[in-house]
Design brief:
With 618 residues, the protein is of the alpha/beta class. 35% of the residues lie in helices and 23% in strands. It contains 19 helices and 32 strands.
């Protein structure tokens, strides 16, 4: 009891010092306060009080106040002295009227539980950073070990492999690269396999011509800043460096090429283009291209200014390019039940539509669950539509929102029906097949479209069947139903250890509405903190940086706010290593200012404020 009283008195003394220093700074600047407009004088005084408060690192004091259930001064900005005095009054009451408390989960114990559960699921944190970084793997990470190594060196703690893409052989190579880098670097990287789940997606499209479009790099003025790099090699030989396009050519003809050679061609538009051989490798050639080119199967390349036996060679078989559907507002689109390749709208000689565009979808059972008038959203909400007709084998939708010049819809893009009860609440056959394979390699299984406790129970049963109860489960919250059922889902998933939650903000925003995303993700964070479960903040974090090499201002703010979660997920992109490095720095700096919802008030290091403490009121 005596010790508690001494602790309370110590806290009260610290608050007294803060108040005295705030009043002293106000006194030092009496003249300056008098010089402001009368309407702003109270604001000026409060500003001085706040500056005095922020010259101290009071994080330890905040924790002591929070343990007592008192205000931790985290929101004192607008009323500094009032906040200090209110806490002082409450401390006086505690000193005069102490009571015996019943045993409860303490502040320290709850904090330790979250740390333990996070460590168990996501592994050890990086040095100097408590929030983990997860990265979604792209196909090339199965063959590019150096890229995987650089990602881990930059700060990646967890790798996400999406079972909706690639295949088992690619997944295994990804894991092998991760484990190899772990051994060489002496760090840990958890591997998460993301089950596809009952995701409604667009079906295949009618294939287009066999060609590749190659673009040089241009600045905002359209000027070429760097050539495109093109890999010339026999069919099936992978590039040894990062390139922008691959052209299969004859082995014997390639063997004649040397650095400095010029290769002339006419692209599919009959435009003359030149490839400049920049370097030879053991298995191929890297050439530079300074003008946009459309190169198709059979395009002839001619070696210029060389007296050799074989001057020309034809480009070998190229993959067919996808021809996306272009949809404008008020267009009709037919969703077909049968899995036939989609096609654009057909028009007559006068340009009138005689057959609207059509595409299939991956889960035809939803046709029986929808009604006329319900919204349908495509590609994370980029295209909005409304159902105008429902038949046994098709849905007709009218496009209600698209880009100014139309929006393109490609194969394997998400379809959301936020107002429809689709009843997609079970593990799919693909999920079960994938799970049987990936449990040999996974640290964590991500349950996509976790909507009901039954889905969680089904996954737990499958893991038991494969003797993989040690594998963690992460719930991917991405639908209205999943959000509504979150308390029940948490109770269900806590039957597994370790466990956690991913906020899949892409689908969640489409399902709940963009305007509600901020409050929905906050509520998920609060509930998970109450359950001491780690949370992954996912979707579009530093997206333009990862894809284009330069972040937007809004993305920087979003990444900073993500520090309140226990892990932040980046998507794949050509600049993913740069994105990891930037996110690592942001998270390290932000943890000095924020812990979950609480502001952490370390001392301000703003050089412009220093003169204010040297000022003399005389």
């Amino acid at each position: 009891m005596q010790k508690n009283k001494e602790q309370l008195q110590n806290i009260a003394s610290q608050l007294d010092v803060l108040e005295k220093e705030a009043r002293q700074l106000e006194k030092n600047f009496t003249l300056q306060v008098q010089q402001v407009q009368p309407a702003f004088r109270a604001s000026t005084v409060n500003l001085l009080h706040y500056l005095a408060l922020r010259q101290h690192d009071i994080r330890e004091l905040q924790e002591q106040l929070a343990r007592l259930g008192l205000s931790s001064l985290g929101r004192a900005e607008s009323h500094v002295l009032a906040n200090l005095q209110a806490v002082q009054e409450q401390l006086n009451c505690l000193l005069n009227n102490t009571v015996e408390n019943k045993a409860v989960l303490s502040f320290d114990e709850s904090s330790a539980l979250l740390k333990t559960h996070t460590h168990d699921l996501l592994g050890a944190p990086a040095p100097g950073r408590s929030t983990r970084i997860m990265v979604t793997f792209a196909t090339e990470m199965a063959t590019d070990y150096e890229l995987v190594r650089r990602m881990m060196e930059a700060g990646m703690n967890c790798a996400r492999i999406n079972c909706a893409h690639d295949h088992k052989e690619v997944w295994v190579k990804m894991v092998e690269n991760i484990r190899r880098a772990e051994q060489e670097l002496g760090v840990q990287c958890k591997v998460l396999f993301d089950l596809m789940g009952p995701k409604l997606r667009t079906g295949p499209l009618k294939p287009g011509p066999k060609l590749v479009v190659v673009h040089p790099y241009r600045n905002e003025l359209g000027q070429v800043t760097a050539p495109a790099k093109v890999w010339l090699a026999p069919a099936g030989v992978a590039p040894t460096v990062k390139v922008d396009a691959v052209l299969p050519l004859e082995t014997a003809w390639l063997a004649q090429l040397t650095e400095g050679d010029q290769l002339q061609l006419k692209d599919s538009r009959k435009r003359k283009r030149t490839l400049y051989v920049a370097e030879r490798a053991a298995s191929g050639v890297v050439a530079h291209l300074f003008k946009t080119s459309y190169i198709s199967t059979g395009t002839r390349l001619a070696l210029k200014n060389r007296n050799i036996a074989q001057l020309t060679s034809e480009v070998g078989d190229l993959p067919e390019i996808e021809m996306p559907l272009l949809l404008n507002q008020d267009d009709l689109l037919v969703l077909r039940k049968e899995p036939v390749p989609g096609e654009p709208a057909q028009t007559d000689a006068e340009g009138q539509v005689v057959q609207p565009a059509f595409i299939s979808c991956t889960l035809p059972e939803v046709f029986a669950q929808v009604k006329v008038g319900q919204p349908v959203l495509f590609d994370d909400g980029k295209i909005e539509s409304e159902i105008t007709e429902v038949t046994k084998n098709s849905l007709v939708v009218k496009i209600t929102s698209a880009g100014k010049n139309g929006s393109t819809l490609r194969a394997d893009k998400g379809i959301n029906l936020p107002d429809s009860n689709l009843g997609l609440n079970k593990l799919t056959d693909k999920d079960k097949q994938d799970l049987a394979f990936v449990v040999k390699y996974a640290d964590i299984i991500n349950l996509s479209f976790a909507n009901t406790p039954n889905m969680v129970t089904a996954l737990q049963e499958e893991l038991r069947k494969h003797h993989a109860e040690h594998v963690g489960i992460m719930l991917k919250i991405e639908t209205k139903e999943g959000f509504r059922n979150l308390p029940h889902l948490l109770l269900a998933v806590m039957r597994t250890n370790p466990a956690g939650v991913m906020i899949a903000r892409g689908d969640l925003a489409v399902e709940c509405g963009w305007q509600r995303l901020a409050e929905v993700q906050e509520e998920i964070l609060w509930l998970c903190e109450a359950a001491h479960l780690p949370v992954v903040w996912a979707t579009q974090v530093l997206e333009t940086l990862a894809k284009k090499g330069r972040p937007s201002r809004a993305e920087i703010t979003d990444a900073a706010m993500a520090q309140r979660a226990d892990c932040v997920m980046l998507n794949k992109g050509p600049y993913v290593v740069e994105a990891i490095r930037m996110l690592d720095g942001i998270l390290k700096r932000m943890q000095e200012h924020q812990h979950k919802k609480a502001s952490m008030l370390r001392n301000l290091n703003v050089s412009e404020i220093d003169p204010i403490f040297e000022a003399d009121s005389h």
